[in-house]
Design brief:
single chain, alpha+beta, 2 domains, three-stranded mixed beta sheet, elongated, binds zinc ion
Length: about 200
Amino acid sequence: MLSFEIADDAIRGLVKDLQTNGMPSPQPLTEELLRGLSKEQIETLKNLSHLSDQQQSIIQPDVFPEEGDEAWNLRLEIRTILQQALRLDLVHLKMVQDNLVFFGALPDPQKDWRYFICPDFKYYCWQCGSEVMSKTVYVSIHYKELRPTMAGGGEVETQEIWYCPQCGVEPSSYSSRTESIGESLSREQGIARLC
Ligand SMILES: [Zn+2]
């Protein structure tokens, strides 16, 4: 279990808003914008930029922070400051917004807003705080046009599916999906172009 609170009600409420309305477009911190900020907001931004600089000198590539070490504590502190910035209504600032997911102050929109990044760079469940698991699922592809026989090109795709062992359901190892022959062809051409 995590040693810190994931989010209070204010942050959880904000997440729901962002989920519904999307992120506001990020604004750079201009002189003019700065003049409109309160003392508390400015103090929070100063802390954020100071700690981010420190973080860059401490975090080493390929070394993952472990609970309680210097890098962990620093990333946790930045996370706390970012949530403070959210409570102070600074989500529209680029310097805040750019860091929210990386420091786990918000759940990752690319993970359906369900999981957030912990100071050790692993994903945890935004609801219950369990470490998230991933599983490789084999998906066989069937052609729409050939329904109901469910014939396909015999192609099997692998997908990495994330789930929470506590409040989610472990996906089964095999599944299937249908696509049209046209979709299948354009997907294959897309793959070929990448190679
Ligand atoms: Zn969970």
